[in-house]
Specification:
Layout: H1 8-13, H2 16-19, E1 26-31, H3 37-50, E2 55-60, E3 70-71, E4 74-75, H4 84-97, E5 109-113, E6 118-122, E7 129-137, E8 148-151, E9 159-165, H5 188-191, E10 197-200, E11 208-222, E12 226-236, E13 242-253, E14 260-271, E15 276-282, E16 310-316, E17 323-328
Parallel strand pairs: 1-2, 2-5
Antiparallel strand pairs: 3-4, 5-6, 7-8, 7-17, 9-16, 10-15, 11-14, 11-16, 11-17, 12-13, 12-15
Amino acid sequence: MEHSQDDDYWQEISPQCYLQHVDLPMFHIGGWFDTYLRGTLRLYKDMAERSQYRQQLLVGPWAHLPWSRKVGAVDYGLEAVSPVDEMQVRWFDLFLKGLDTGLEAESPIRWFEMGANMWHTLPIISKSNQKSYFLSSTGLASIREDSGMLSESCPESYASDVFVHDPWRPVPALGGHAVVPAGSFERSQIDCRTDVLTYTTAPLVTDLHLAGEVMAEIWCSADTPSHDLCAVVSEVHPNGSVYNLTQGYIHVPSGQDRPLKMSLQATCVCIRKGNALRLSLSAACFPAYPMNPGTGSPLGSTRLMDAQVVTLRVECGGDRASRLLLPVVDLG
């Protein structure tokens, strides 16, 4: 908790320091709601670039465990039943017994597309087409669902939204990859809170396929020495239900006059025609992440009774355009 930033402390104990001298065939397995997915993808990319051996990557609609067709409140169907056992037998027959299992003739990457509920095979992880969706608002995005909008065009006029984080009533965590149970849950009751800003697209006129890393650049400031920012991307259905897809979280010092760049968990999902996409912003995601007391002191060193109420401002439009960058792809 004394090292809430990615500093030298973490670099010195990172597995990357030791694995850079290792070259072996590796079978990398992860899930879109897996706590360790970022490390899995990072290691696969590193090994695929430099290894003389085959690297296999499988990512399904799972948490870290179990690998089942249902995660959270969503059942992804029979196609989502884990193929890991069969693939592991083929993998070990190939590399431990020297048997030709046909594995080397297949594409090394296999991803499950949620929403479409089907598997895709890929030869490489390509740099996705990062498409920008800009935030705009009437200034009431913490109160009205129709105030905050996401659109492909950058708004010319400037606007801002203000919301208040109360450390004795933090925004709760629900699903995602950082709590148990993990996965996708109906979260409309959280988005209705006044300490959550929501920005929503119009209903989609065509299916939207996302596959890869999600980023957000948010102009956000606070009236305390430090603050946190949580970003959740969700799918909104015509009946008003909202299901989370991916999220990110950062702990930052205040007083920075630049957009906060957030890396959200990678995902692979199809947003169906008629549904909408939503970005929800808050200053807490408790207890998935320790609550920031707003004092600027190291996390865990401030008594709860000394924590500060934080007023935050998110800006959008004009020369302070906040945006969500999505990995839009054509998966065919």
